[in-house]
What we know:
The chain is of the alpha+beta class. The chain has helices spanning 3-14, 30-42, 44-47, and strands spanning 21-22, 50-53, 69-71, 74-76, 78-81. The strands form 2 sheets. A 3-stranded antiparallel sheet has the order 1-5-2, with helices on one face. A hairpin with a 2-residue loop joins strand 3 (69-71) and strand 4. The mean pLDDT is 89.
Amino acid sequence: MDLKAAVERYLEVVKDFQQPMHLSRFGLSKEExxxxxxxxxxDYHMNRHFRLMGPTEDLPGIGENAVHYLINGVAYSAIVFxxxxxxxxx
Length: 90
């Protein structure tokens, strides 16, 4: 899944930027998701346009038994895209 498709999926699920979405909602395997988001996280120009949320943060609508993903060795369960991500596509 490329970044543009991921952002479209994000907006389809949460309807607006700045809202947390559980990483499982991308519909990818655990391995695919971890690889994809780890690459974004390592890219300085991309990682400033989103925030990853850890399993201990209060995530509305996401149960405490939710799957956690290892992104560059750190456990996360959700992502929040900033509207500025749109500038990455230009």
